[in-house]
Task: structure prediction
Amino acid sequence: MSSTAHKETIRQEFTQQAQAYASNPVVADATRLERLVDMVRPAAGARVLDVATGPGYVAMAFAEAGCEVVGLDLTEAPLAIAEQTRQKRGLTRLSFQVGDAEQMPFEARSFDIVVSRLALHHWEEPQRMLQEMVRVCRSRGLVVIEDLVASEIPSRADYQNHFERLRDPSHTRALPIRELIGLLTDCGLEVEQIATGALSQDVERWLANSHTPPERAAQVRALLERDEREDLSGTQPFRQEGRLHFRQRMATFVARKLTGNGI
Result:
């Protein structure tokens, strides 16, 4: 189970990042949200749990698709933003609550769909989070993960995860696709769909959003500038109008809980 200290780091980081994260166009992008819901194809009235909901955009997208949705998060600050947005949009089939993704306050087999976006890389023991997601999902229901992914080559993955952790200490490790598939199958899930893509990050905006202290921000810039010259991580840093950018690779997994899974 993830340590109490690391969970407190997550709370601290996403308390200070809450407004910037909610305002990030990459996070709020309606097209990306629509694509995620379209992959899942939820039935009208399906019960959905959004784990580590943050500002609640994924939860709202499923609610707007006709689902009954609960958004769960470890940190109160982003949930306050999510609730304000829910009220503005008049979404009545959606609620938010504070809770730990490793010890969720729900009965087993409570939800038809359990989803989490951009969260797994923050957990020290991602398998524990996945096991909980499977536990609260009904038999033959869907578990959906969308997250950053790293290179299949360990040294390149380590390089990316190093600068990601310098930027945001709540980041633990972006996993390679092969390892994520292994975690899902070890939890008794059958992977039905995988989609890949990338987020383009403006480095200075990305650092500002996380309030990275100047000394660590300088280290991150230096690592990315070296990566631009030497191709060390697979994130392909590049210049656009004089500003440094890089690509965070993403993958979305839609997996079904097998009948007879005892979790």
Q: What stands out?
A: The two ends are 17 Å apart (CA to CA). DSSP finds eleven helices and eight strands in the chain. Residues 4-150+171-198+249-257 form a domain with the Rossmann fold fold (CATH 3.40.50.150). The first strand starts at residue 47 and ends at 51.
